[in-house]
Amino acid sequence: MSRLGLNPLVDRGRKHILFLTHYFPPEVNVPASRTYEHARRWVKKGVKVTVITNHPNHPRGKLFSGYKNRFISHEIMQGVNVIRVKTFLTPNAGFWRRIVNHLFFTMMALAASLRVKDVDTVIATSPQFFCGLAGSLISEVKGKRFILEVRDLWPDALIALKIIGNPLLIRQLRRLEKWMYFSADTIVTTGSSLRDYIVNIGYPANKVMTIMNGADLEVFDVIKYSGKSGNSEEPLAGKFIVCYVGTFGLAHGLETLLEASHAIRDYPDIHFLLIGDGAERQNLILRAKKLKLTNVTISPLQPKEKIAEHIASSDLGIVVVRNIPLFRTIISAKIFEYLAMKKPVILATGESEGSELIKRHNCGLVIEPENSLQLKDAILKLYKDKNLRKELGENGYRAVQQQYNREVMAERMLRIIMPHRRENALDAAS
After folding, report:
1. The domain 16-214+405-417 belongs to what CATH superfamily?
2. Which of 56, 282, 315, 407 could bridge across to 64 with cysteines, CB 3.0–4.6 Å?
């Protein structure tokens, strides 16, 4: 890493994308991974990509090793120009401190964008909400096309979780939300439910595209791990492993997993592996201790390669959310990573956009959210039927290979960013 000097990032002759994101590797959450996995593929296609982001600190609010919270720093990651700005460090918990964190990034991103010249397109990914606002403002200053990527509905999530309830505040946020959407030349969503919401508030339907999440098959390479018969780490050696990877957040209802593990304790060879971090991590640890669970391991967030290894050594993957209608509109990116490793999925969302995918490809079981008894029954069904596990896993693997991999999704999004590309590649409408 080196301090970014005053010379602008100029590379004439190549299309130049300026991408704003609150999160970026070495952080390993979904927005960080999606942005990086797309950007590095765009670079391979001959496009110049500059990313403005924070110094890595999510979710603990502590800088990752090797980084300093400078005013501005610069690094190159597989050809992607990364500008990191001074960051208001705070854990992923506590509403007002996070709002300050988001607003601070907006101001710093605006300042840093003045150093980036010859931009053709500005993209911002939301949430975080104010990242989208920053992208809109920067596109106005530069007079360039603005593409807004919407991965979640905000402030709806805050309202649904009762984090905010003040009617005046909600009205103001709604105004900002609508302004942000209508400032975009094009909107890209990660699911059709998000697209429907945006169209229903009046945004032109022909300007909203859907690019779903997927798995990076260079990392989640099932062939690489095909020789692994099980997890070698105690207490997991020889166990039937039920795996959850992701955020330990208010939206996920991970208590349901602990309740299911308690109900299933009479099967000593079934073990629950929870990998991740977030606002609810400590509460989960305390809850597991209170229930005296010996069949649960709660591991910290880990690099992608290590996560792939853990999934490969597991027998099935779990996706859970709280029983709130809004969360049924979200398709968890972890689904695709489980399927890439030939693991059947238990999706605890009830009828949802994700359940439609699972049923369409016959690659898992769908149960109601926050229902530990249904979760227990689904786990035992797969535990007792090895052939069913294999069938569902193979079906999911084929779906990811053909449709839900980052190579396909990155090319489709690039066709939206640059609609006049003549390269022989995947059709964006396929």
Report:
1. Glycogen Phosphorylase B; (3.40.50.2000)
2. 56
